């Protein structure tokens, strides 16, 4: 029987170790790496090419949402499974749009966790029953609403999300251009398109949007300043 190569990305050491202990007792699961933030999760996924990435939505440095985008872009066939507190329906929807194979609540029991991992590995999708019920209810309300009352949801491109992430981390245009091997003018053009799509103006509003939508996760014990 082929073992499921799994990458575990969770910011809290004690809980990550507890998850690893549970997973390593399973004969069909092999934990190939552990990440403490989104950037490390992307790097390890690219290196190990795991079958499944079990990832917290609330990761520092690079958020779970952005990490999902990048992992799906940079790996051959890794399936991403998210762990969430379940409060933000829009964040969950954006995770699924980004390519996640499923989402389950952090208070799920061991049997549900293993079911989700094995379902994702087989190519299926999994949502915790509570999440699935909320999404169905939201869809029913959305379908019943008149067209002019429906929100306009315009998903940014992967490149635009990369730039938004770097802007939110405080990088200037030149630094972003060097990191992504782009011209400064191209970065400026991307930022203008992002602002137009999101209906915001300036870096401060872009950063507020990124925080509100879960594109970045602030470290509360570190200083944070909005770049000029």
Q: Kindly report how far apart the N and C termini lie.
A: 56 Å
* Strand proportion: 5-15%
Across the major sheet, the strand order is: 2-1-3-4-5-6
The whole-angstrom Rg is 18 Å
General description of the model:
The longest helix is centred in the middle third of the chain and has 16 residues, at 129-144. With 228 residues, this protein is α/β, with parallel strands linked by helices. 34% of the residues are buried. The chain is built from ten helices and six strands, in the order E-H-E-H-E-H-E-H-E-H-E-H-H-H-H-H. The radius of gyration is 18 Å and the shape is globular. It has a six-stranded parallel beta sheet, with helices on both faces.
């Amino acid at each position: 029987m082929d073992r499921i190569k799994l990458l575990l990305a969770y910011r809290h050491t004690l809980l990550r170790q507890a998850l690893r202990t549970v997973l390593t007792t399973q004969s069909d699961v092999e934990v190939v790496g552990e990440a403490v933030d989104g950037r490390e999760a992307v790097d390890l996924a690219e290196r190990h090419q795991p079958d499944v990435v079990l990832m917290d939505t609330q990761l520092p440095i690079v958020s779970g949402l952005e990490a999902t985008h990048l992992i799906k872009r940079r790996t051959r066939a890794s399936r991403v499974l998210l762990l969430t507190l379940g409060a933000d329906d829009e964040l969950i929807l954006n995770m699924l749009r980004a390519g996640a194979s499923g989402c389950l609540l952090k208070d799920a029991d061991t049997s549900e966790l293993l079911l989700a991992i094995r379902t994702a590995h087989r190519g299926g999708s999994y949502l915790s029953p509570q999440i699935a019920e909320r999404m169905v209810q939201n869809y029913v309300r959305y379908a019943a609403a008149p067209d002019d009352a429906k929100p306009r949801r315009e998903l940014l491109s992967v490149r635009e999300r990369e730039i938004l992430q770097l802007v939110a981390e405080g990088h200037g245009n030149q630094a972003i251009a060097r990191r992504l091997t782009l011209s400064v003018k191209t970065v400026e053009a991307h930022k203008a398109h992002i602002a137009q799509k999101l209906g915001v103006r300036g870096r401060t509003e872009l950063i507020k949007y990124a925080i509100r939508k879960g594109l970045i996760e602030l470290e509360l014990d570190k200083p944070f300043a909005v770049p000029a």
